[in-house]
Each structure stands twice: as C-alpha cells, then as structure tokens.
Amino acid sequence: MLRFDVNLSILFTDLPLLDRPSAAARAGFDAVEMWWPFDGPTPPRAELQALRSAVDDAGVRLVALNFDAGDMPGGDRGVLTSTDRFLANVDVAVELAGSLGCRILNALYGNADDTPECRRAATANLRKAADRAADIGATVVVEALNTYENPRYPITSSKRAFEVIDDVGRDNVKFLADLYHLHRMGEDVLDLIDTQAHRFGHVQIADDPGRGHPGSGRMPYRAIFERLEAYGGHIGLEYRHEGQGAFDWRTA
Ligand SMILES: O=C(O)C(=O)CO
Known about the structure:
Belongs to the hyi family. InterPro entries: HyI-like, Sugar_Epim/Isomerase, Xyl_isomerase-like_sf, Xyl_isomerase-like_TIM-brl. GO terms for molecular function: isomerase activity. This is Hydroxypyruvate isomerase family protein. By secondary structure, the chain is α/β, with parallel strands linked by helices. It has a single domain (about 5-245), classed as TIM Barrel (Alpha-Beta Barrel). About 35% of the residues lie in helices and about 15% in strands. It has 8 helices and 8 strands; from the N terminus they run βαβαβαβαβαβααβαβ. The chain has helices at about 20-25, 45-60, 85-100, 115-135, 160-170, 180-185, 190-195, 220-230; strands spanning about 5, 30-35, 60-65, 105, 140-145, 175-180, 200-205, 235. The chain has an 8-stranded parallel beta barrel, surrounded by 4 helices. It is globular, with a radius of gyration of 17 Å. The two termini are about 20 Å apart. The mean pLDDT is about 95.
C-alpha cells in the first residue's frame, strides 16, 4: 500500500505555516513534510515549540524535514558547503525531527561550484550530519534537482547524487528520489525505481511538465505507483496547486 505525505512548504501555502498541519489533516492527510521553515539555522526555541505543537495538535506525523537551506524563495538550495551555517543547524534540526518522530532529514547541497574543495566540505558535513542523525535513528538524504529551475545547483542526476552518497560512506545517508526533477532531467524513472529503489531514503513526486499533481503531465504515474508498492516508505507530494490547499487527485 502506498503511503503519501504532503509537503507543507509547497502546498497549503495560502495558509500561515502553523495552520497548515491542521489543514492537511482536514484534507485527509496523516503525514506531512517540509523544507526548513525558519529564517536561519537556529530559530528561537519558542518558534520551534510552536511548530511542534501545531504538528502534534493536528494529529499528523512529520515524516521528512529539510535541514536549513538558506533563502529558498530567493533561490538558495541548501547550505551544505557553508560549513558554519550548516553545522549550526544540524543539532537544532535533528532535535526538532527527533521530538516529532521524524526520521528523514534532507541536506540540500547548495548552489555551490562542484569543486574538489566543495566536495570535501560536503562529504565532511554530511558525515557529521549522518552521525548526529544516527542518534535518533534517522537517515540523511541527498537530492538531485533539475537545472531548469535550479541552474546553480550541482547535483542534477541520480548518478551524481550516488557519487556524493558513496563518498560519505555512511549507511544512513541515502538518496532522495524526487521523480519530477529526475524526469525533467531526462532520467528513466521506471528503470531507476526498478534498479535503485534499495538506495532510496525518501521519494517525492510531481508531474512533468508543470510540476502539478500526478496525472497533470506526461509522467507514467500508473506504472510508477505499481513499482513503488515495494518501496515501503512515504511518498512526498511536492507539486504545485494553484488553488487553496492541496488537490488530492486520488479522490478526483
Ligand atoms: O527546491 C525544490 O524544488 C525541491 O524539490 C527541494 O526539496
């Protein structure tokens, strides 16, 4: 049986952050995920507690959380190679995730040049994040993004993401298979699932073109969902929906 969660950083965005968990629950979702929702790596404890309460009170489960990734609306896509900022966030993010039973933490690589120096920093910082995440039994995931919407992001294929993961060499560092980004980059997502699903730490979906709900584009979602039955983890709904809330195509 497929388990879906809704990404509250791209859906329900017509509502204030703290109202989104309960809106997701009312829409029939029991699991949520989000990009780092705070300004900066170390928000005030009161803001962290307010988010915990909003998730708990809504009766939904946080199943995935991004580490601090900078100004996402402004085009940042991670701070992994900005060592001081990334490491300042690791304890905070892991503590927040742990307090909510969240076991997936997404470390976006950042708009960094793919130089040997950046690769060394990313590898070292992912190891630190992985070792801290292991304290709560969590997995750190590495995501590939498409170049059309993320022109400065260097991890743009499953192959390059697997290289990053292999360099880190930690069992709890795995791949975030965002099928929309990968399909937009021309990857055969059906073959990827067939051959690499054992390396997936998390899956996110949207349709291509348009990044709308499954069925709004040309991706083979019937075949994708058949193959994901064996995956077992949550599938993050990370699509755009122009109306209020989240369009739940499953009930369409
Ligand atoms: O920035 C995006 O498009 C993402 O998918 C981040 O997880």
